[in-house]
Design goal:
alpha+beta; Phosphorylase Kinase, domain 1; 5-stranded antiparallel sheet; 15% strand
């Protein structure tokens, strides 16, 4: 797969003399390559639409361009079907421990809030809505049809999902990133960058905040601080809805992984990832039910 990807990147018309093409780690839905062309370097993201995950590359492109204009993501250099080429940023990719570092967390929350506030003003075309409750129901429908090995768990998850949706209640919409893994945050030593907009779309801000917390193991004190900083209000104002959305985010990641076990061709241990996220979901649901 890497050899095929490298050949495809080499043939892109946007490059005059592509050299030193190497795979980049971290992608679990795309193949990512680092390419040097003259004195510049670029990231080449190779990936077609992924209908089972609701990933549409035209949507990713629109959001990537808006994020560039808002100054939160690297610039788009070239695009064509199945290919997105971005300016390379010399930066360190965060690990979960980096996100939990208080010195970083405050900056990350500010970055997310800025993206929520500003991306909409830079969009030049319609984008998708990422409503996590429907996303999860769609996953379950597909998993049933695919006779997933996890089918026995699905009815219980759907009953739980309905309770979570009621607990979240009415929401305000923002342009969300919807995939706040540590690997999607970069630090160039002067500022942070937010990358990979393939799941982006209109959503409640609670989903990004919940994903940031659940994907990176924030403690309760950090969650309180995050909510207070983002909303400029006491954390208790949004606490129950936030906890419900955190469970919803973890359920989405679990169902995503169950689906990837069936459909993905990338070399990644999705079964282990499913178990990890199911454990996180179980723990979060236990905490939510105590509220």
């Amino acid at each position: 797969m890497s050899e095929t990807a490298i050949a495809r990147a080499t043939a892109l018309a946007c490059f005059s003399d592509p050299q030193d093409i190497t795979p980049l780690g971290g992608g679990i839905t795309n193949i990512n390559l680092l390419v040097r062309d003259g004195d510049r370097r670029f990231v080449v993201r190779l990936g077609d639409d992924i209908p089972e995950h609701g990933v549409m590359r035209w949507n990713e492109l629109a959001l990537s361009q808006a994020a560039e204009m808002a100054g939160v993501s690297p610039a788009v250099f070239h695009q064509e079907p199945g290919v997105l080429v971005l300016n390379f940023v010399e930066a360190r990719t965060f690990q979960e421990a980096d996100v939990r570092d208080p010195a970083n967390l405050n900056k990350i929350i500010d970055l997310v809030a800025r993206a929520h506030r500003e991306l909409g003003g830079h969009l030049s075309s319609p984008i998708l809505t990422f409503w996590p409750f429907q996303v999860n129901r769609t996953y379950v429908t597909r998993l049933k049809a695919d006779r997933s090995a996890h089918s026995d768990l699905l009815p219980g998850l759907m009953d739980t999902l309905s309770d979570l949706e009621k607990a979240v209640g009415p929401v305000d919409l923002v342009v969300g990133h919807n995939d706040l893994l540590a690997a999607n945050l970069l630090d160039d030593g002067e500022r942070l960058w937010l990358i990979d907009w393939e799941y982006g779309g209109f959503n409640s801000p609670l989903f990004d905040l919940a994903g940031l917390a659940s994907n990176n193991g924030l403690c309760e004190a950090q969650e309180n601080t995050m909510l207070e900083q983002y909303f400029e209000a006491p954390a208790e104002t949004h606490w129950r809805a936030y906890q419900a959305m955190k469970c919803t985010s973890l359920m989405r990641e679990t169902l995503w992984s169950m689906t990837s076990e069936i459909h993905s061709r990338l070399d990644f241990d999705y079964a282990a990832y499913t178990r990890e996220n199911m454990d996180r979901l179980t723990a979060a649901l236990s905490k939510f039910r105590e509220l």
